Amino acid sequence: MSLWGNNDNINSPGTVTLNYGNNVVTGSGTSFGLEGEAQVGDVIRFGQAIPGGPFNYFGDAVITEIESTTKLTIQDTAGLSGREIVGKNYQISQSPKYLPNDAA
What's the whole-model pTM score? Predict the structure, then answer.
């Protein structure tokens, strides 16, 4: 159990694509908003930091809105690499909300 929520790694099925222009994440095979799945305020991690390394990890962002099981909006892209995110794996967690924007 984490110090900031009940789950370090929430169920994260499917893949995601990010539109940097409007901060909308579109999922394929995802279940955003359902009980036990991604919720508003959770952090989405694009790609896999370990063992993925710098080429398979794109950064983290806070979820601000969930429109459907396949569409959500993130707060901003400050914690992301800027590289294209299309059909990538992702992880959802209840980590501190300041982490995606705090490089330290």
Answer: 0.83
Q: Is the peptide bond before 51 cis (omega within 30 degrees of 0)?
A: yes
Whether 96 shows a pLDDT value over 60: the answer reads yes
Strand order in the sheet with 24-28: 15-19, 24-28, 71-74, 57-68, 43-47, 90-93
Q: What is the DSSP string of the chain?
A: --SSSS-SSB---SEEEEETTTTEEEEES--TTSTTS--TT-EEEEE-STTT-TTTEEEEEEEEEEEETTEEEES-STTB--S---SB-EEEE---TTGGG---
Residue 60: pLDDT band with limits 50, 70, 90: very high
Please say whether the beta carbons of 101 and 9 come within 8 A.
no
- C-alpha closest to that of 38 among 82, 77, 5: 5
C-alpha of 89 from chain center: 9
